[in-house]
Design brief:
heterodimer; A: alpha/beta; 40% helix; B: 14 helices; 18 strands; 30% helix; globular; disordered N terminus
């Protein structure tokens, strides 16, 4: 599904990622953990293709094609989804309007007929029930006045509607209380399926109690310093990042 | 010998006294020669078959205009080379020679825009100025509408027809809101206006339809100096839609229209405009100069006038649809979206003059600038001495796209009554990279993202438009900003 080889990324003249290697197979869920400033979000943004995240070396193959050659929207239309750490407010634009534009952009890309307002409402209804999204949230302007939990639930809801093949969740657990965390995790778990891979970026192992990953990677100083199974997360929880990152620096 | 030369000779032969009453000119001619003088005004008046009072009015306007020729308003934040008023035509019959003969001769870019807006083919021909005499299906639709309006007693026709058929009404109200002496462009318009609409809604009548579709069909030959007069008698209601989302081709660069609205007791007029005149090329060459005077008088108690405008076209827009709130408890509203891209310049806003007690006004202005455009909101709120408990709320929001454009807000507030209340809010924002990336990460193109964000920014104004217009206007907002993000 995704094959990252020796990826170097520069942000504001500073090299943040210094050679990342990571392979995620079809249907797998990988977690990337690491202390603040280790380059976790940079990895997410570089994969999504945001401006300002300059790839200076390495390759990324996505479903056999060169991901880095695509623009941010082309990557999205090819099924790459990023759940933002800080979902953006768009005043005046109702949730449904935004979502319909997004869903139709993908449908156009796949040569499918666009959904009109009525068809879209029907399409959304099904998914809404699954994620416990009230109508009110879709009528309000995108993310405006949303609580932290609502914003993150809205991200997972968008993910459900857009049915990505590869999803990056950037600190989707940050700022959530335990109930909101469970709700978001349940939403994500409901979307796990053999044809969909995920990269879950988190600072805390707590999220991984609910979204159980196939592999865990530790990122420090722009490199993956250790990879392992689910137990690696628990080990980190016990011992902290200190031991690992210190070893790397030395 | 040209018409003017002939006329000049006649004038000389008749001498001063003969000139006044016995002016003769060749009214068979379709086009008046270039330039503007008293003869041309008389020529136009004769062409339109004006009654004497109207000719006198035009002449008064012309003489005033002539005296103030060097006093063109210069206070607006727009710049353009001086206009040579003697180098323009003030009257030409609709059938101009250089019209395209079919859509194949029309600028393909213009056609592409029509396509995007979903304009039906026959309307495309009309808008592009194709010289077609074919009878469209829509003409019969128009006739049906006309029948319905007549049944309701609503008078709706061209201003020339109104002068002929309803001279009393026209004479009573023409110039009563925007006098011929009002301002440079209104004075010019008063002297030479040739086209425009007239609406009269009788007492207690709710106009059974938006005066729109009909108008669109009717507007095939929109003049350079339009004059529109709408009178809503006691307790009546009318919604009037002007303009069109499709870019209009016009060979005249200077436009100076006047619109007058009169609302009597308990009457309501809703006037919506979508203006999309040719803005010129990327360097601003060849665009329309749009100098418009629009004003409504809420003469009666509890009357209401609401202006909604979406301004996307023209190289220069100079326009301040205003309300004179004379009647007690009357209400004035101004909702505006002004989009400027490339080299466009817009200086637009409103005037709310509170005269009566308990009068209320609301101003919501959304200015969007992209490219190298300059957009200015200029608005006056005046609470006169007798405007007890009058209230105004103003909100001016500016959105900038890119870093080479400008947005300016110039509010004038005059309060002469202690019980009056005036609120002014203003914001300036930019479309952020985060917003763009968020939309694009969801699969939208940069242009779709801008259209979506800008439509959200304009929402409060768009929702004031009649439904059918609102959908078109939303598309237009997106189209106007194409190419504004790279």
């Amino acid at each position: 599904m995704l094959e990252i080889r020796d990826l170097h990324v520069r942000v504001d003249e500073r090299e943040v990622l210094k050679g990342i290697d990571l392979t995620i197979a079809r249907g797998e869920v990988h977690a990337v953990m690491g202390p603040n400033g280790s380059g976790k979000s940079t990895l997410a943004y570089a994969l999504a293709g945001r401006d300002g995240y300059e790839v200076t070396g390495g390759t990324v193959r996505y479903r056999g094609a060169d991901l880095l050659a695509l623009s941010i929207e082309e990557r999205a239309r090819e099924g790459l989804f990023l759940a933002f750490q800080y979902p953006v407010e768009i005043p005046g634009v109702a949730g449904t309007t935004f979502l319909r534009a997004a869903v139709n952009a993908r449908r156009r890309h796949r040569g499918e007929r666009e959904l009109d307002a009525m068809q879209f409402v029907k399409f959304v209804r099904e998914k809404q029930a699954e994620l416990n999204i009230p109508d009110d949230m879709l009528k309000r302007p995108v993310n405006v006045g949303f609580s932290g939990g609502e914003k993150k639930r809205n991200e997972v809801f968008q993910m459900a509607l857009l049915e990505p093949t590869f999803a990056v969740l950037d600190e989707t657990d940050s700022g959530l209380d335990i109930d909101a965390l469970k709700m978001v995790a349940n939403g994500v778990n409901a979307l796990r399926e053999p044809a969909r891979s995920m990269l879950v970026i988190t600072h805390y192992q707590r999220l991984l109690d609910y979204i159980v990953p196939d592999r865990v990677h530790v990122l420090a100083h722009g490199r993956i310093v250790k990879s392992g199974g689910r137990e690696l997360a628990l080990e980190l929880e016990r011992e902290g990042y200190g031991a690992l990152t210190a070893a790397e620096a030395a | 010998m040209s018409a003017v030369d002939a006329a000049a000779e006649t004038v000389e032969a008749l001498g001063e006294s003969g000139y006044k009453y016995g002016f003769v000119t060749d009214i068979e001619s379709d086009t008046a020669p270039k330039g503007l003088d008293e003869e041309i005004v008389r020529f136009i008046s004769a062409k339109k078959g004006d009654p004497e009072w109207l000719l006198d009015w035009r002449l008064k306007a012309y003489r005033l205009w002539e005296r103030q020729q060097d006093e063109e308003p210069r206070w607006a934040k727009v710049s353009y080379p001086p206009i040579d008023y003697q180098d323009a035509y003030y009257y030409s019959a609709p059938k101009s020679v250089d019209r395209p003969k079919s859509l194949e001769e029309v600028d393909p870019e213009l056609l592409a825009t029509y396509e995007k807006l979903g304009i039906p083919l026959h309307e495309q021909e009309m808008l592009a100025g194709v010289a077609v005499d074919a009878v469209f299906d829509s003409v019969s639709v128009a006739t049906t509408f006309k029948g319905e309006l007549e049944k309701a007693g609503v008078l709706f026709c061209s201003i020339s027809e109104a002068v002929e058929k309803y001279p009393e009404l026209v004479r009573r109200y023409l110039g009563s809101v925007v006098p011929y002496s009002d301002n440079f462009y209104a004075t010019l318009n008063s002297a030479v206006f040739t086209d425009g609409s007239f609406v009269y809604v009788p007492e207690g009548v709710r106009c059974p339809m938006e005066l729109s579709t009909y108008f669109r069909i009717n507007a095939a030959n929109t003049g350079q100096f339009e004059r529109t007069l709408i009178v809503a008698d006691k307790g009546s209601y009318v919604s009037y839609l002007e303009g069109c989302t499709a870019p209009m081709r016009d060979e005249h660069q200077l436009h100076a229209a006047v619109v007058e609205l009169v609302a009597l007791d308990d009457a309501e007029i809703k006037y919506s405009t979508v203006q999309n005149w040719y803005p010129g090329d990327e360097e601003g060459r060849g665009g329309i100069y749009n100098f418009v005077t629009k004003r409504g008088a809420c003469r009666g108690s509890r009357s209401r006038i609401s202006w909604t405008q979406v301004e996307t076209g023209s190289a220069i827009t100079w326009k301040y649809p205003s309300c004179i709130l004379q009647g007690d408890h009357s209400v004035g509203e101004f909702y505006s979206i002004a989009i400027t891209n490339n080299r466009q310049q817009a200086d637009t806003g409103t005037k709310m003059l509170h005269v009566g007690r308990d009068t209320r006004s609301t101003i919501v202005s959304k200015g969007i600038s992209a490219g190298r455009a300059q957009s200015t909101y200029r608005g006056l709120v005046r609470m006169q001495g007798k405007a007890e408990s009058a209230r105004n709320f103003t909100q001016c929001d500016s959105l900038l796209i890119g870093d080479k454009c400008g947005a300016h807000t110039v509010p004038y507030i005059e309060v002469r009554n202690r019980s009056a209340k005036v609120e002014h809010e203003a914001t300036t924002s930019k479309i952020s990279d985060d917003q763009m990336d968020y939309c694009r990460q969801r699969g939208m193109s940069a242009e779709e993202a801008v259209a979506l964000i800008v439509n959200g920014f304009c929402k409060e104004v768009l929702q004031e438009l009649p439904m059918e217009f609102a959908v078109e206007a939303q598309k237009l907002v997106g189209l106007s900003l194409e190419g504004s993000v790279g």
